[in-house]
Amino acid sequence: MSHFYMNVDNRTEASIASEQISINALKVIRRLTEHGYEAYLVGGGVRDIILGRKPKDFDVATNAHPDEVHELFRNSRLIGRRFKIVHVHFGGDIVEVATFRAARDDAKEDIDTEDEDQLNQTESGMLLADNVYGEFEEDVFRRDFTINALYYDPEKEEVIDLVDGEKDLKSQTITLIGEPENRYREDPVRMIRAIRFKAMLGFSINEASAEPMRELGYLLQDISPARLFEEFLKLFMSGYAAAVFEELLRYELFGWVFPDSRRAMDYAPAEKLIRAALDSTDRRIAEDLPVTPAFIYAAFLWYPFVEEKKRLEEEGVSHVEASNEAAANILAKQQLFTSIPRRFSGPMRDIWYLQYRLPNRNKAQSLVRHKRFRAAYDFLLLREQAGEKLDNLGEWWTEYQDANETERQTMKPKPKRRRRRRRRERPT
Ligand code: ATP
Ligand code: MG
Fold this sequence. Notes:
The chain is of the alpha+beta class.
């Protein structure tokens, strides 16, 4: 069957100049087609170029099998166990090449036997393995959204659009391909992806695609913590975290991924703190300043941590032990949903623990030299922004950092009784 039929309308609408495509992606496509394979640029790269945005990466889709692709490129590596893709390396640049594949869903009942269904889907309909190679058309329809299913043929300079993706790009709409509920059941992460693209592009989600989300949010519990951590990074570390957060709340998905954080919104200013943290993350990314997931996790889980610590202290556990235990408990619970690699959980604890040391103004000299001081200070400001009354501690630290050595000497180490009370409470 021909793979080249296309909507003539769409041919005129697409404006893709080859200068916008990475030369390496073009090289990969040319080499594959020279060897008789079909190969296209696809996914976010095509979408972003048509929108006039700078693509993050370039994905290539081809009918060549992974080992055939690997054979053609000496500079390539086979990636993945279940479903193999090929990374073609050009120095630091990587072009990802995926073989056309077919999704197994209800739309293809006719070929799926019952046994195969059992093998490939959980009861809720989630795909366990979508490792079936397929035809071009199948590759189009197994993709998530119409705006992500545009294929560009650089030789013909044509966009192939079998799903009205260009129309949706024009009307700024995110439309799931196929029957929404089925597609979310197959892979619940698509709900999060819809939100990410909405926040990132400022699009709206088409009504039929948005409708099942509140009902189906619970399916996110089936997703592995490792995969949800990857999604976490894309959601909150890409420069539009604040918008993502609003959408996750709007579609009632936030609590399925961050249950303790969601609960904390009912008894503490958690929502304000998270918003402040995400706003600041977005601002820093816009200014090209470094950001870390540790800080975001610290904000998401701060009030659950405080609450858990309080509970332990009421049971008679000392401040230091309660801190350690509370942090461990809260982390362990969150890791049932999203993993938190050690390189982030360590700094996150530091930020939390320093919150209890920052009131100690007469230790200022050593505290400012703590390697996590700056993050802890930023965090303190956010807590105040969220409404915690901390005796203007943030302002004090701001002045302290601005002051020179002599001025620092004269800065009153501390206001009255609070310190003494703290001292007595502290276990020795
Ligand atoms: P980004 O700009 O974030 O990279 P993207 O659209 O390229 O956005 P990727 O995660 O890189 O997203 O995926 C590449 C393409 O693979 C998507 O455009 C989409 O066509 C397809 N895809 C990715 N994830 C899914 C999924 N869960 N279900 C169906 N198709 C998917
Ligand atoms: Mg991509």
